[in-house]
Amino acid sequence: MSSLKKINSQLSPSIEVQSLKDIENLSGNIYKSIYMVSKRSEQITQVVRGELHSKLEEFATHQDNLEEVFENREQIEISRYYEKMPKATLIALEEFKNEQLYWRERETEESKETK
Q1: Domain map of the chain by residue range?
Q2: Quick one: which of 12, 49, 76, 92 has the most CB atoms within 10 Å?
């Protein structure tokens, strides 16, 4: 997770126009590139969501009490930090453009049969 925090400090949370040719050239196929970025984005989302839930679980009350909801300043700060983070797709795209992603292709059954 430390690498995500490092990227978080360097990456702008706003969306910028990307060159499709540059993205396509990295894998040879624009659809493959977008697929890889989306899969990495899902992985990042799962990690961030798990981290957020584990931090917020400390503040959870396990009582069925509908009377009052207590606001904790620390809980609010944690939530704001995660809201300000760049979206997982932006992080994944940045990793892809910097060639920090590793991927491999599965062999199709057709190529196995011809061997």
Answers
A1: 1-8+40-59+71-99
A2: 92
Can you list the alpha helix ranges (DSSP code H) found in the chain? 2-10, 20-27, 30-56, 73-84, 88-97, 109-114
CA distance 10 to 12: 7
Instruction: Output the CA torsion 31→35→41→42 (10° steps).
Output: 150
Contact status, residue 56 vs residue 79, Cβ threshold 8 Å = yes
Torsion of Cα atoms, 30 then 32 then 34 then 38, to 10°: 180
Which candidate, 20, 26, 27, 40, places its Cα nearest to that of 90?
40
pLDDT tens digits in sequence order for the chain, 115 residues long: 555 665 566 666 667 788 889 888 888 889 999 999 999 999 999 999 998 888 888 777 666 655 555 667 888 888 888 888 888 888 999 899 888 888 787 776 565 555 5
